[in-house]
């Protein structure tokens, strides 16, 4: 869902609102400012949300990235941001395997919300530079990502630490899956699982 916000410029810029979700300390805020300024910015734990505009190589489109706090008490507020979402970027700390089950639970809880049915998804395996971090492929299995795809589809994996900003706009234009009836699991287009290094040890 990409729409015209009605700016007064001669070429109104379309905006796509992308939600950055994930557990606390997964690296969402650091990633947000890395994408915005292309530099590592020291951050503190987000209480509430951060929002930044990110221009793409398509001059007519700007991504509005919403970094929503991932603490347990904040997750109940995620759903209030779903109706306006054009895409979801779910960030996972691929090194902290003790919290993968928790990440799995919150990811699937979000994707089963009716407002996100068929919405393009990017899963980011963050902190790949840390010893013991799970690969993108292993993370696909741990998070049971095939459950949220159409039958016969597989997740696309973008290995080699690609810049996540390259993945997000592509999925926004992926063909959206039709919302499934309530009795079936949500379906969505195939999505990339990107990798990224942490900015600090």
From TrEMBL:
Signal peptide: none annotated. The keyword rRNA processing does not apply. Mg(2+) binds at residues 29, 46. Pfam families: Arf. GO terms for biological process: establishment of cell polarity. InterPro entries: P-loop_NTPase, Small_GTP-bd, Small_GTPase_ARF, Small_GTPase_ARF/SAR. Residues 178-201 are annotated as: Disordered. Interacts with ARL14EP. This is ADP-ribosylation factor-like protein 14. It comes from Mugilogobius chulae.
